[in-house]
Amino acid sequence: MRNLIQLVRKDFKRKWKNPVVILGFLFIPIVFTVIFGFVFGAQGEEALPRIKILAADKDKSLISGFVLGALTQGGLNELIELEEVSEKEGTKLLDRGKASALLIVPENFGKNIWNGEKTELLLIKNPAEQFLPQIAEEILDTLTLGLSSLRHIFADELSTIHKLTDLQEFPDEAISALSIKFKDRIDGVSKYVFPPVISLKQVTLSEEKKEVSDLSIQAYILPAIAVMFLLFICNTVFEDILREKETGTLRRIRISPVNMTEYIWSKIVTSALIGILCTAALIILGLVFFSIHWGDPVAVALIVLCLNILIAGFISFLYAFVRTERQAGALLTTVFLLMSMLGGSMVPVENFPPMIAKFSKLTLNYWGITSFKKLMRGESLAAIFPILIFMVVAGIVFSIIGSYFLNKNLKKGTVQ
Amino acid sequence: MLKIEHLSKAFDTLKAVDDISFDVAEGEILGFLGPNGAGKTTTISMIAGLLKPDSGKIFVDTLDLDGNLKKIKRLMGVVPQEMAFYEELTAKENLVFWGKLQGVRTKDLDERVHYYLEKTGLIGRENEALKKYSGGMKRRINLIIGLIHQPKLLLLDEPTIGIDVQTKLNIYEIIHEASAKGTTVLYTTHNLQEAEELCHRIAIMDMGKILALGTFEELIQIVGEKDIVIITGKFSIDKARSIISAFEQAALLSIEEGKIVLSLEASKNISTILEAFFKKEITIDDVSIKQPNLESVFLKLTGKELRE
Fold it and tell me: Mind telling me how many Å the CA of A5 is from chain B's nearest CA?
């Protein structure tokens, strides 16, 4: 144990004096998170920005008011920010890129609708934006289609209403007759419309899927990228084994009273400790710079501990299969990138087809990312406890197998 | 202190060490002299416990290495050919680390680190990273690491390769001091002068075998009073061999294309041999005569020169 502590202290000192590689690997997840944050344009907890539509109502009629009002009703209100402007002002603002689109309601728009004459709405899109004006166009398409259909179905009734509004008189007999007509028309249409040929089935998404959107883009990306780069950070400690083999320090250690098992476990412990420190640093940076709410601090600490035990054990296991730095570079980089791809560090696992998603669970990344995200979504320590136990047990098993084979390999490879 | 009995080690078909036996007394410096590939490093590796012998026994301080490796490791210090330390760490950090691994107490360690750094002229630079040290300074640190726990047996594997004279003398001084304090030293080298100056006894090794072992004076007796004559020129090997065999006072040590090495009772006889060469129209480019020394012993024993 005394020797193990000495070896760990020595490795820590060496890493402390030459921190460039580790700092580089720490820096990349932060940079990625910043870049992705900018690319997706979301800050804090907002997932998508609202679509700003400028509306120039040159008609100012009941119908034009109805159309503009419809754009800010219910769920659309969360998606669309509508600002009424004059046509001139709207064109100017659009030129300056201050909105996604300008909707112009022409004069006599309402009158033409009442009269059943053809009319049109004019939508000018901001060419500098790619997606948002397209969404605005789709919404207005749907709205105009709905409006046209209503105009066709209730043509007579609308004419009656138009006459009444022109006269500004609403006698009870006329209203009740109109109500009966509306009911008859609806009953008539109902046999064609109900039951609908195509129905929309409402399904509650699995909790995991549903809550993805609850996380900020940074909260989604940082843990994913962090787990990937933790693999590379922890690997720097194990790379030293092969370097020490070449420089002769390993041979000298073998001649000293230290046994090889102590030496290998010192690498596993150092790797896990450095991983823990780096993960802690990333968590703090995420909290400070991206306001990521990681969840219960005790649970976060346990995830960090268990995840790094798993990573260190797994890498020691991989080193049982390599003899040279070149072999290690090829094997470990391939395994790390493959695991990151399948485990959700590059693409969210939710986006994988079920067949590929099955393989995700074979990766370290999946368990690390899943546990962090569960916690961020407010799940309790008890909910992630099975994952923690799995990570520790797997980490220890990997370490035992890895140290056994690595010990054998080192004994073969350090003598002349 | 160190006793080797019929030690052998082969790598596939190559016999790296072939049935060697010797012993080294407490405080003695035994030089292991031989060319590259002679089996010196393999012998040291077996004594250090890095290689398992195919046959034979190794005893350190009467303990059989087989079964007592852990105990023996504490008695042993090794200075390898390569600079085996951590260059990012300072001299002091390295010495403390290796000392603690060898079980030296912190209190003793501070004193010893200071003592050896002073002895090697490195005091004042102990807090500098070793990567900033010169080659000679690194060699000194490499030596101190092997000595920091004051071992009973010190194995040195060519510790003075590529260093300046001053550093070399400093290293000799430290080794002499350790020997005077009772440390047994096994010193491998292919430098004849080094073996002559430093070692109490010398073992000449080649092709995995110990060809001769004794003090410098004892080894010189192997060639007796004979001088070593090296002749270079253009000749047919068979013709040259037949000429030399006609002279009773000359013994052919080695002959190869363009070079003849022979021992001669009195170098004045060289003129008669050269005359015989001229008569047979052999062209001679150069003739050199050497007084009996380790090189001539080595030539006599192996038939080849030992070069650094």
Answer: 10
pLDDT digit string, tens, across residues A239-294: 888 888 888 898 899 888 888 889 999 999 999 999 999 999 989 988 888 888 88
Put simply, whether B48 touches A (Cβ < 8 Å) is yes
Q: Is 0.90 topped by the overall pTM? A: no
Question: What would the DSSP string read from start to end of B54-120?
Answer: SEEEEEETTEEHHHHHHHHHHHEEEE-SS--S-TTSBHHHHHHHHHHHTT--HHHHHHHHHHHHHHT
Q: What fold is seen in the domain A51-153?
A: abc type-2 transporter like fold (3.40.1710)
Contacts of B86 in chain A (CB under 8 A): 10, 14, 249
Which residues of chain A make contact with B78, given a CB cutoff of 8 A? 252, 255
Please identify among residues 57-96 of chain B the ones whose CB lies closer than 8 Å to any CB of chain A.
70, 73-74, 76, 78, 80-86, 88-89, 93
Cβ of B89 within 8 Å of Cβ of A10? The answer is yes
ipTM: 0.79
Cα angle, residue B287 at apex, residues B225 and B218 outer, rounded to 5°: 25
Confidence of residue A214 (pLDDT cuts 50, 70, 90): low
With CB atoms and an 8 Å threshold, state whether B102 touches A257.
Answer: yes
| All structural domains of chain A with their residue ranges | 2-42+216-414, 51-153, 155-194
